[in-house]
Amino acid sequence: MQLIDTHCHIHFSDYGLDPLEVIADAHSEGVSDLICVGCTITDSKLGIAFAKRKDHIWAAVGLHPHEAARYINDEKSLQELRDYAGKPKVVAIGEVGLDYYYEHSPKEAQKELLRFQLSLAQEHGLPVIFHVREAFDDFWSIYDDFKVPGVIHSFSAGVKEVNEIVQRGLYVGLNGIMTFTKNQDQLDAARAIPLSKIVLETDAPYLTPTPYRGTICQPKHVATTAEFLSNLRHESLEDFARATTQNAQALFNLR
Ligand SMILES: [Zn+2]
Fold it and tell me: I need a surface site. Which of 29, 46, 175, 234 has the fewest CB within 10 A?
């Protein structure tokens, strides 16, 4: 069985485990590829360096909506990000989006930074990894001006949002949240996504799936989430793994 972790942060300097050991463990559990996703300039740069060290490790470069206030007027950093987008092994812009739940940055700054990064994705022909929390209305009004391919990562909304995502041809990124949520709407939504539009992720070190809650999340845990979701959706684990792996390879052009 082959799986892909399309979203992790094991390259962050404060990741609590040895990332090379974690990668070896992931490979032995059938996780063939993983994408190290950036939230700041520093960890986007680290992600590229990290991906260079090993085959089948990829990088996404981007500025998280939480960081919008810090970067939106920082021309030097924005230019750096533009340079990073063209580096080898960079397979996506991300993670970028809108977060009105925490609202760590003003909404206007978040929207402006999102527009900038969507234009970068267009320039470089890269797909985008989106973080959208309690902000779908504003998100769609910006996204629809660009219509780039991508994934709504760490999906935890409802069936209405699944429909909005799928009708635009975007993918839905599912992670350990699904294994511990008590929210029936989220589970109904996870059942409603066409198999051709699901990609798997861990968001390591966050969102460790049941039964490993309380430990640091690792890319190998994507197998636990795959098993849970295939049961939830009444699909065989083999079919579910094959489809989600092919979806990730197609979206991110992995080879
Ligand atoms: Zn993340």
Answer: 234
